[in-house]
Amino acid sequence: MCGRFTLITDLQTIAEIFGVPATLEAQPRYNIAPSQEVVAILHEGQRQMAWLRWGLIPSWAREEAIGNRMINARAETLAEKPSFKRLLRSRRCLVVADGFYEWQQTNGSKKPMYITLRDGSPFAFAGLWDQWSAADGRLLRTCTIVTTEPNELLATIHNRMPVILPREDCERWLDPTVQEAEALLPLLRPYPAAEMQARPVSRLVNDPRNEGAALLA
DNA sequence: CCAGACGTTGTT
DNA sequence: GTCTGG
DNA sequence: CCAGACGTTGTT
DNA sequence: GTCTGG
What we know:
By secondary structure, this protein is an alpha+beta fold. It has 5 helices and 13 strands. It is globular.
């Protein structure tokens, strides 16, 4: 699955890579956790960068707390689940990252591993987003990250992995004229293991209050 | 028709 | 909002 | 994902 | 055990 990730690359570079205006600013982040704001790219009128809160609150939800659990969406059932079907058609997004953490369970203990592309370049998770109006009038934009079965590398660590979209697939995922599940679901596959790498990192990363480059030691 | 759920993960 | 179950 | 709380009453 | 918060 995916429950924690990094975005260290500056957003000017991110903007250039994904072909959008650099409208956001942020410090490097080494421990992005659910319920926090993440950098996303979506197509609303035009392609743009946006802050979205990680943890989907569907527009019909009564309680904000639902978002604490909806941090992932299974690719295998995306087109059937009431919560996601509508979003697959019209509310797709990219969630920008340059690495993510998975906890490997080995004889009773959990070891955090840090997974990146081999060349260290930033990448995009496939995501869905929605808007939710709170009773007090706040309008929240939230998102969820799509997961799938693991590739050969991730299978040694965990039984799920986030969907990473190759650059060319990002175009189709964001294209608002594409709405058929048949055209979208084939994009949601495990990223090639040969292009990824994983290494153990400090258990400091366990606590989402810990931040900074020391986590990667 | 209305009522009620709507999610993932991991663990048992 | 949309789907399932009764 | 992990960490940390998990309750009520009454009083301030 | 289960839920909430980050």
